[in-house]
Design goal:
By secondary structure, the protein is an alpha/beta fold.
């Protein structure tokens, strides 16, 4: 698959040959969905907590005698039936993480990249670097390229000025190649790869 390469200013900068083994697959929604669910499960904090009856500070003395009151037979006041009592089967601190084989994760990334390439949401630029770290200038560059909602992937090292200028722009994410992931690719309309990112991806899946 051949794709045109542009600069941030919108000028042509040649073309790049993309590997069909990475960008030319027929996207499978089931594999992508498994990976997204794995990511979302993994990032859940799991810090929710409710007190059970053993954690309530309240007397454990029997409320009243067992027989002769005409009412229900109650013991401890810490039980869930009473206001201020412990909660039955409440949430506890735990990990929500699930397992997903590495091969499935790698395949899901290929399918997410192929999905972007198939629907025209893939853009390749020569480099993600600017002379001055000015957000206003970068917004103008993005407007010229038609980027309002995009994930930008650079090589192993981000250009400091570019990352600084882009971090205040809504709906624009900038990540090094190590941070590329299925969820972030799908949540943005456009995927912008630098030539360094394309080379790194092809080396990774070789």
């Amino acid at each position: 698959m051949e794709l045109k390469v542009t600069t941030l200013e919108g000028k042509e900068a040649g073309s790049v040959q993309l590997s069909d083994a990475i960008f030319g697959l027929e996207p499978r929604a089931d594999i992508i969905q498994r990976c997204v669910q794995w990511q979302l499960n993994k990032r859940q904090a799991g810090t929710h907590k409710a007190k059970g009856r053993a954690e309530i500070w309240r007397t454990g003395k029997k409320m009243y005698k067992q027989k002769g009151t005409g009412g229900a037979r109650h013991g401890s006041a810490r039980v869930p039936q009473f206001r201020g009592g412990g909660r039955a089967f409440g949430p506890v601190v735990r990990s929500h993480a699930t397992d997903l084989p590495k091969k499935v994760r790698a395949l899901a990334l290929k399918h997410a990249l192929s999905a972007k390439a198939k629907d025209g949401g893939l853009v390749v630029i020569d480099q993600a670097a600017i002379k001055e770290a000015k957000t206003k200038a970068l917004i103008g560059n993005f407007a010229g390229l038609g980027l309002t909602n995009a994930l930008i992937i650079d090589g192993a090292e981000l250009n400091t000025g570019f990352a600084t200028a882009a971090r205040n722009i809504p709906n624009i994410d900038v990540l090094p190649i190590q941070g590329i992931n299925v969820y972030d690719i799908l949540r943005r309309h456009k995927l912008v790869l630098t030539k360094a990112a394309v080379d790194a991806l092809e080396a990774r899946f070789k």
